[in-house]
Design a protein that fits this description.
Layout (H helix, E strand, L loop, with lengths): L2 E5 L3 H11 L7 E6 L2 H15 L4 E4 L5 H11 L3 E4 L6 H11 L2 E4 L14 H4 L2 H7 L2 E4 L7 H13 L2 E11 L13 H9 L2 E5 L2 E5 L5 E6 L3 E8 L2 H9 L5 E7 L2 H12 L8 E3 L2 E3 L1 H8 L13 E12 L2 E12 H8 L3 H18 L7 E4 L5 H10 L4 E5 L10
Parallel strand pairs: 1-2, 1-4, 2-3, 4-5, 5-6, 6-17, 7-12
Antiparallel strand pairs: 7-15, 8-9, 8-12, 10-11, 11-12, 13-14, 15-16, 16-18
Helix pairs in contact: 1-2, 1-13, 3-4, 7-14, 13-14
Length: 404
């Protein structure tokens, strides 16, 4: 019987626990662990209320390899689902190697002292996982994750040649707070304030943060301004689909969010450099995180929709083709099902599906892998079955109309 250990009791961990509980044939036993046991208990109770299933909970410090290894050996899961912080990816991979358990996460490792999207730290584990006969699946969220699978699906089913990929992430939800982030504030702000980057003709091109924009008409959302950013799936797509001539990532932000972020940057509150305050060393962005609303608390007050997808341009049967594959998610529908808003939902559902792919051996191969390296068809079918239905349409707008 399959056992899964979910580490992380934030908004995404909550969704993963709910969705796993709704698939007892694949996930007959579930354990949720976090540093804060009270958060695990609240999720356990919500899962039981909504699904009728009782899951186990346990305390764990995901930074402590020995403590995590001990928990894994005691519970003996088939798979560890990491929905903790990206800083903890390597610690949890080390614990999985020590205890002999497969691994899955939703975001690439980030060093605590540098905001950086780079897979090299985790790719360096490939040989160790291969030799141990274990699998690590990286980035099984939405972006990265579903967007990678969309690209693999497009390459396999829709195109003979793929030339351009544009990933667009729009959250049109309204929560009523002057300033709040829909996932971990520290990770969110580090990501948004970093320099932009895109791949073109075999070279990385950098841009100033949020300096390149385009207006895009998102289905069921409307026209929103999207900002060119760097995101980790660009790195793996450029590596695994070397024929792609250009790959870019775009994300939308509201005017209030950007104004507050500008002020916080100007006064130094987004810095990751420690400062001394009243005889103690503090990191400003970590202090700011403590002041901001908990993303897990936004579910009941967030209304509106998300639209995340990929515009892929290339050739089919000798003719130029452009396709748009995307998902639309309603915040309140997600809350009614899982007690979470759509940003947590769109990350947590793919984590559950990735785990399902591994536990059912549809995706199972020793080593360290990204999502686009596997057959996209079963994953795409599971998206439709488990709450993230996708749409594939011909895209009429010339992709070059999006600025560089």
């Amino acid at each position: 019987m399959n056992k899964v250990l979910i580490i992380g009791a934030g908004g995404v961990g909550n969704v993963v626990a709910h969705k796993c509980a709704r698939a007892p044939g694949v996930f007959p036993e579930i354990m949720l662990a976090s540093r804060t046991l009270s958060k695990c208990a609240a999720i356990r109770d919500a899962v039981e209320q909504r699904t009728g299933r009782r899951i186990g909970i346990a305390p764990v410090d995901a930074d402590d390899v020995e403590q995590t290894t001990a928990l894994i050996r005691r519970y003996r899961p088939n798979l560890l689902i990491n929905v903790a912080l990206p800083y903890q990816d390597l610690s949890l991979m080390n614990a999985c190697l020590a205890a002999g358990v497969d691994y899955l996460d939703t975001a690439n490792y980030e060093p605590p002292d540098e905001a950086k999207f780079e897979y090299r730290w985790q790719w360096a584990y490939r040989e160790r996982f291969e030799q141990a006969g274990l699998m690590a699946l990286l980035g099984s969220g939405f972006d990265p994750g579903v967007t990678n699978v969309y690209c693999a699906y497009a390459q396999q089913q829709l195109f003979d040649e793929v030339h351009y990929v544009d990933i667009l992430d729009c959250n049109a939800g309204e929560h009523g707070h002057p300033f709040a982030t829909n996932f971990n504030p520290e990770i969110n702000i580090r990501e948004v304030t970093a320099r932009g980057r895109y791949w073109e003709q075999g070279t990385w091109h950098d841009t100033d943060p949020l300096s390149v924009t385009t207006d895009f008409d998102f289905p069921e959302v409307g026209v929103r301004k999207a900002y060119l950013m760097h995101h980790e799936e660009l790195e793996s797509l450029a590596k695994h689909f070397p024929e792609i001539e250009r790959a870019r990532f775009w994300m939308t932000f509201g005017a209030s969010y950007l104004k507050h972020l500008e002020v916080l940057q100007n006064v130094g509150m987004t810095s990751i450099e420690p400062i001394e305050f009243q005889g103690q060393q503090i990191v400003p962005i970590q202090f700011l995180k403590a002041l901001l609303p908990d993303p897990a608390s936004l579910g009941p007050r967030t209304h509106g929709k998300t639209n995340i997808g990929c515009i892929v341009t290339g050739e089919k049967d000798g003719k130029p083709v452009s396709r748009y594959v995307y998902n639309i998610c309603d915040h309140q529908a997600c809350y009614r099902e899982t007690n979470a808003q759509a940003v947590s939902y769109t990350t947590g559902v793919p984590a559950m599906i990735g785990a399902m792919m591994m536990l059912t051996s549809q995706w199972m191969r020793p080593g360290v892998w990204n999502m686009e390296e596997f057959d996209p068809d079963p994953f795409m079918a599971a998206l439709n079955a488990h709450g993230l239905p996708w749409t594939d349409i011909e895209f009429a707008v010339d992709i070059d109309a999006l600025p560089e």
